[in-house]
Specification:
Distance between the termini: 26 Å
Number of helices: 12
Order of helices and strands: HEHHEEEEEEEHEHEHHEHHEEEHEHEH
Helix content: 25-40%
Radius of gyration: 21 Å
Structural class: alpha+beta
Number of strands: 16
Largest sheet: 9 strands, mixed
Length: 352
């Protein structure tokens, strides 16, 4: 579909694409040449997001493409279109559309041209499916200034709003990282480490431990929140060395908390966690977070992407629970970076 639209939009012989679905090894190889490797652009993450969305209904088509310039793969673009309850949406596997991400040595002129064509492609897809607007999002990628995607989108009359995201610079030594923690966290980490047995599931087979976490997650949430397939995919991430799981046990050997963390050489991500609700007055998450930071540093990961920091003035206003979770995460962070959400208004652009 993307290749057909590309031929309709541009006559540039230097620009071509190949689908991710049919070329996962090529995607992986190109991913390894990115100047910054976000977890969200990895094959494993995209496959997981698609499986998660399939489990919640609708028809999903993965349109993710490897983009070529002068017959060389220079960019990756995660993209999908879905139809649910007779409504079509353009996303990156359920998330706001992620901008194309480029290999380290791609020429500036090719980046500008590729961004222009991708924006036109997305609008053409939207028009074909009666979509009046679509949303994209950009997170920190270890670069300075606004991206070409942002600049061109704003020139096309897109709307922009800001989301705050928390990161920890793992380039600091562990002593400096600990000094940067919120003051109260230091003693909580020490006391929690004495209270719980801490373990890490990392690259080895132990389905029993993972099943314990699934049972804990079900107990905490009170319902099944996603498919067996997605749980198996996360376990496979652990086995293949793309993720690790930090768990806590009480003195009776019962699992009382745990968290899964995915990572690349550049970025670690806090994926999912669950904690015994009856122990929320105890330092559970503090211990898991600290051990995860130690594990990420051991793997020489550059940045830890902790998550969103909601504020009461955000629109729409987050819940009090979401704000408290953000406050908790902030106590471990060293940086708060802007995540830009852009609303691309297709109808207005067509009428202009």
């Amino acid at each position: 579909m993307i290749a057909e639209l590309l031929g309709h939009i541009t006559g540039s012989s230097g620009l071509s694409v190949k689908s991710r679905i049919d070329n996962k090894e090529l995607w992986e190889e190109t991913f390894n040449h990115l100047s910054y490797k976000p977890v969200a652009y990895s094959n494993a993450s995209i496959d997981y997001q698609l499986a998660y969305q399939h489990g919640h209904g609708g028809t999903w088509h993965d349109l993710s493409t490897v983009i070529f310039w002068d017959n060389k793969p220079v960019a990756l673009w995660p993209l999908s279109i879905s139809i649910k309850e007779n409504t079509a949406k353009i996303t990156s596997q359920g998330l706001p559309v992620m901008a194309p991400i480029f290999v380290a040595d791609s020429p500036i002129i090719s980046r500008k041209r590729i961004i222009k064509v991708c924006l036109e492609l997305a609008d053409t897809l939207a028009i074909a499916h009666n979509i009046s607007e679509w949303e994209s999002g950009e997170s920190f990628s270890n670069s300075i200034g606004l991206s070409e995607w942002h600049v061109q989108s704003m020139a096309r009359d897109s709307l922009c709003h800001l989301v705050h995201e928390l990161y920890l610079d793992l380039g600091m030594d562990i002593a400096e990282i600990k000094r940067n923690f919120r003051k109260s966290y230091k003693s909580l980490i020490v006391s929690g480490s004495k209270l719980w047995t801490v373990g890490v599931l990392d690259g080895q087979k132990d389905e029993r431990v993972w099943q314990e976490f699934r049972d804990l997650h079900f107990s905490v949430s009170g319902r099944v929140t996603r498919s067996d397939e997605t749980w198996m995919m996360q376990y496979q991430d652990i086995e293949s060395g793309r993720a690790f799981f930090v768990w806590l046990r009480n003195s009776e050997g019962e699992m009382v908390g745990g968290g899964l963390f995915n990572f690349t050489e550049d970025e670690g991500v806090y994926a999912v966690a669950a904690y015994d609700r009856s122990l929320f007055d105890k330092p559970l998450g503090h211990v898991v977070q600290y051990r995860a930071i130690e594990e990420l540093k051991k793997r020489k990961v550059s940045w830890y992407k902790i998550g969103v920091r909601p504020y009461g003035s955000d629109n729409p206003r987050p819940t009090d629970k979401e704000i408290k979770i953000g406050e908790f995460k902030q106590g471990f962070s060293s940086h708060c970076f802007p995540h830009y959400r852009l609303i691309h208004r297709v109808v207005q652009q067509q009428e202009a």
